[in-house]
Amino acid sequence: MATNKFNARGKDLGAIYAENVTAKIFQVAQRGLSQAAPLKEYPHTVPQTGAEAGQYEYREADFWTCGFFPGCIYTLLERTIRYPQAIDILHHPPKHLKDELLRLGRHWSVAINRMSGRTDTHDMGFIVQPALQKDYELTGNPESLVSVTKAAYALASRWDDRVKAIRSWDVAINDRYSITDMEENFLVIIDSMCNLDLLYYIGHTTHDQKLIDMATQHADTIMHEILRPNFSSYHLVNFSPQTGKPQAKMTNQGHADESTWSRGQAWAIMGFAQTYTWTKDEKYLETAICCAKYFLERLQEGKGRWHHPLVPVWDFDASFEDKKEPLRDVSAGVVAANGMLIIHQALQSLGSPDSTADKDNFLDLALQIVNETLDMALDRDFASFETVLDGSEGKVRESGFDAILRHSTSNKNEHAHRPYWDHGLVYADYYLLEFGNKLLRVGLI
């Protein structure tokens, strides 16, 4: 399935570019064509057991993960336009794929365009950037730029000058707590670091320094109040809107308030690395590096204890019934790998790829994480395209499992209303494909 042209520094990453990944995205995307846009539901998780095993479970269109499946379509579109050498499908050359992917991407993006002015969530970056920003960058579609701009200002509306942060959630409710009074509570989560990229992008596009400053001040608040002194991260901090000071530090999706939820740590790595790329302030790069080193140190705890130790456990401090088969979160690993690749590029741009700061060699470590992820979690029921016959194009020989990767964990917190774990996950697939595109952009593939 893999060829040497998809080898990066001795790691065979052909699975990221294989016909299987394009065919799997097609098999799900084409189902959406049977419904009129705007679509009412979007792919979220793929259960690995039970009556519905292998089929995407969908969430309502306004759920925070709605942008990632359209984003998967656009990662493939980027390949067909910019990197046709990464398209290795005999029956569907890049020109055909480009037209079909663009048609699918636009269909799946109608609902996202329509919700781009939402002010009830901080996840506007996750919602609009994977598809709409990429649509603008690849095709120049002005409607997409309007929506991305609208989303940035909608996100900015959640800023509070006393807290010096953007409100992440309006409420936080589980079986342990119910935080609903927005006059007394201001909830900020570590994931918010990865929505700042939207503010920087539009701030620079429109020359609006307020958006840029807002993003940077938010990053400072996260650095000082959500990161611990050892650069591990809390998940959720509740600030007082009156004083701007934290009044509680806790978790919502991790194991415990003082534990380190692996995906939260991964968001920190990527978010601070992205912040550095916009600001060029080295304190953000240093913070990203320290967050990454903490992540890598915790991964090493699995060495010799369980297989594929570079595939992170879902929470670094959780206990496990089976010591040799701990519960993993593949999505945490691929998000962290994206962040580490950004760190590597930043260090190269400073002229210090072999510096003390990069003694861990973040490029090789990112490649190792993804390589182990593919070995452990790649679903082996491969999809493919059928031979073009009678003018019928795009027909897929479907896989019995909709997702590319298995073994993600969305939420295993014991107090969650809806805990679910060990499944395929749409943003694990998205960040795997995006990692592959990052390698193409920097010429490593």
From TrEMBL:
Tell me what this protein is called.
Answer: Glycoside hydrolase family 88 protein
The root-end lineage is: Eukaryota, Fungi, Dikarya, Ascomycota, Pezizomycotina
Listed InterPro entries = 6-hairpin_glycosidase_sf, 6hp_glycosidase-like_sf, UG_Glycosaminoglycan_Hydrolase
Which residue ranges does UniProt annotate as crossing the membrane?
none
**Gene Ontology MF term list:** chondroitin hydrolase activity
Q: SUPFAM superfamilies of this UniProt entry?
A: Six-hairpin glycosidases (SSF48208)
Keywords, alphabetical: Hydrolase
Per the record, the similarity remark reads: Belongs to the glycosyl hydrolase 88 family.
Q: Which species is listed as the source? A: Lentithecium fluviatile CBS 122367
The GO biological-process annotations, alphabetized, read as: polysaccharide catabolic process
